Amino acid sequence: MQLNSLKVLDNLPITVEPIPKEHSPDIETDNPTHHSPASTPANGDGTHIGQRCILLPSQKIEALRATFEKHQHERQLVILQDFPDPDALSSAWAYQLMAEQYDIQCDIIYAGTLSHQENIALVKLTGLPAHRWTLQTTKSKDLSIYKGCALIDNQGTTSQLMSLVQEAGIPIVVVVDHHSLQGELKAEFSDLRPSVRATATIFTQYLQAGMLALDNSINHHVKCATALMHGLRSDTNRLMQAQEEDFLAAGYLSRFYDSQLLNAILQANRSKRVMDVIERSLKNRIVQNNFSIAGVGYLRYDDRDAIPQAADFIVTEENVHTAVVYGIVHDEDEELEVVIGSLRTTKLTLDPDEFIKEAFGQDNQGRFFGGGRTGAGGFEIPMGFLSGSNENSAYAKMKWEVYDSQIKQKLLRLVNPRDNPIQTE
C-alpha cells in the first residue's frame, strides 16, 4: 500500500452500524477509548475522518492538559528505551512539541545507541532532537534542574538511566506506552494501551484532540508528522497489522507528512555488518515446529539493531512462522555485556509478550527480561559477573556456548517440551 493513498480517507464517507454496548471493544486504559459513529465533527475531545469518529475520553485529555499546566515553566527528561525505535523516537518528539505549549522544556535521551540504518536516517534527516546519554555522561550531569520525567513507549524497565533518575529524586510525571504493564508504576498521568499497535497512534490521537495544532507551514511540524507516520508504519509491519484507529491516525498524518522525506528514510541501506549478522543467523539457525532459532555470537554495541533485522529476515523462510535471533552485545565504553534477542512471528495465536515472559521469566526485583506486542518481541538479559574479559578467545567461546545452550533450552522447552534441547555426546 502506498502511504499517500491514505489521503483518500479524508473523502470517504465511512458508515457503520452501532455496536451494542455489551460488545463494545475495550482498550486497557484508566478511561477506555470509545469507537462510535458520528455524523458531525468531533470537538476538542475527539477526532474524525468522514463520518467516523475516534473519541478520546474527555477525562484523559483533561488530565493530560492539567498535568502540563501543573508543570508549566519546568524542565523534564523524556526517557526512551536504551535502543529506541521509530515509534519511541517520533512519539517522544510529539510529546516535546506538546509540552512546549506550556513552556515545559524537554530533553529526549536514551542510554544505548542508534544502529538500525532507518533509525539513524530518521534522526539525521528530520533533525529529531534525541540525545545519547551514557551512564557515565549522566553521572556527570546536574540532574537537579529536572523537575520530572516522562517515559514514552516504555515503562522504565528497558532504560539503564532510570536508576540514576530515581536516585536523583526525579518523579515520573507522564507514562505513555502501548505495551502491557511491566510492574508497579507511580506516575501523575499514565496512558497504557496494550491493544493499540503503536504509541505513535496514541500521540496522533492527542494531536487530533487539540493538544497541538499541526501546521503545514511549520517545518518541524511536518517533520514530526513524518516521523510519527514512520513510527506507526514500523510498529504495524507496514500497516499490514494496523487496526482501524491506526489507519485513522495515518489518515490524519497524511495531511501533514512529507512523503519524499519518508521515502528517503526507508531507502537507507543496510551496512555490511548487518548483512554479516543476517548471514550468521542463516548459518546457525535450527528449525523445530516452525520455529527458527538462531544465535549469532558476539556483536559490537553499535550493531545491536542487526539482531531484529536478522529476525525480520529469517521469519520469511518457508514453513517458519516464528523466528528468534539473539547474541551477546558488548558495550566497550561501559565494559558491560548483555544478551539481546528479538522475536518475530506471523502466527496469530502466538502472543510474543506471553511467550517471552514465560521463556525467560523475571529478575530478582520482579522485572521481566522481555516482552512484546502483536507480531514482535524482544528480551535483554544482563550477564553481570561474567561480563567482559573476552581477550582469551577460548574463554569467550566457552562463555558463548553456555549462554547459547541456556537460551535454546528455555526456548525449546516451549517450542517442543517433549524433546531434550541440549545435545550431549
TrEMBL record:
SUPFAM superfamilies: DHH phosphoesterases. Residues 17-49 are annotated as: Disordered. It comes from the Bacteria. Transmembrane segments: none annotated. Coiled coil: none annotated. It holds the Pfam family DHH. Residues 78-231 form the DDH domain. This is Exopolyphosphatase-like protein. It comes from Aliterella atlantica CENA595.
